[in-house]
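subagent[fold] <- orchestrator: predict structure for attached chain, return tokens only, no commentary.
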Amino acid sequence: MAKNCLLNGLTFDRIIYNFPHADFSFKNKTRKVQISRNQKLVRMFLENAKKMVNKDGEIHISYKLCGFFLAWDLETLALNCGLSMIKEVKFRLNDYPGYSTKFGYGGDKNFDCQPSNTYKFRLKKKERKCGTN
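subagent[fold] -> orchestrator:
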């Protein structure tokens, strides 16, 4: 996204990614592979978002509070990308007017987004390139 010609040079106060998920086409893979693939997606998002957020801006990621998602270890991913946690808050759908949850496999079906939290991060003073987890 940082290299998108329509967004070239733009920076933002907030960059939000609600419910990232790599996709369901690999559900026959092991849990470890599924987690690794989702961690890579989040790392790539964070790497790009860092280039596009104002120096005092925030990067928000919302995701469900269940074992599979928690195994991504979002806080460590963000830390390894040079971000520090500002706070964690309960996800409230009404905070996003016009937003609706959708399964990512081609349907128009909503998913139940509760229980979920939003994690808010900012750039560390001395940022570093995202490392692998």
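orchestrator: received. Logging for downstream: The chain has a mean pLDDT of 87. The longest strand covers residues 53-64.
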